[in-house]
Amino acid sequence: MIMLMGSQQDYDMITGKQVGDAPAWTPEEIGAMHEFMGKWNGELVESGEFVDARGLTAPVLARRVRVQDGVPVVTDGPYAETQEVLAGYTIVECESFDRATEIAAKLAQTPHPEHAQPRNEWYVDIRPIVDGFDELEL
After folding, report:
1. What's the first-to-final CA gap in the chain, in angstroms?
2. Is 129 or 117 the better-scoring residue by pLDDT?
């Protein structure tokens, strides 16, 4: 699973909202990013490595459920701009973990406006998916 990370600020920027002093992304800049992602996914479908992919809504629409003194506590958010959350994922079935890493590395070429440098270092996480409890051992 290739997990794409983001923050509320990232969601705001890629939907054309102005964040701080940086100008909002233009429709053309947003379109270039969507075109790149479509091509990236299309190549995976063509190679037979694509299994599934989904994007997630902005963090502002999330709820966090935690236990406090044995009772579930529900909080809307998380809202913190610097808090990174899972923004979406792509599941690939490929020959090796190295190949999955190669696929994920292509995302570093995703176009973005020069003024839209992320506050945090860009990264994706890659983790194998287990098929059963016996695979949980290291």
Report:
1. 17
2. 129
59 vs 134, more confident: 59
What type of residue is 138?
Answer: L
Structure-token match 């290739």, residue found? 2
25, with CB counted inside 10 A (0-12, 13-18, 19+), is buried
Q: How many CB atoms lie within 10 A of CB 10?
A: 24
Query: What is the rounded average pLDDT for all residues in the chain?
Result: 86
Please report the sign of the dihedral spanned by the C-alpha atoms of residue 97, residue 98, residue 102, residue 108: positive
Q: Nearest 5 degrees, angle CA 47-CA 49-CA 50?
A: 110
What tokens does 102 get? 């190669």
Q: What are phi and psi of 14, to 5 degrees?
A: -80, 0
Checking if the pLDDT of 128 tops 90, the result is yes
- Percent of the chain with pLDDT strictly greater than 70: 89
The answer to whether 7 and 81 have CB atoms below 8 angstroms apart is: yes
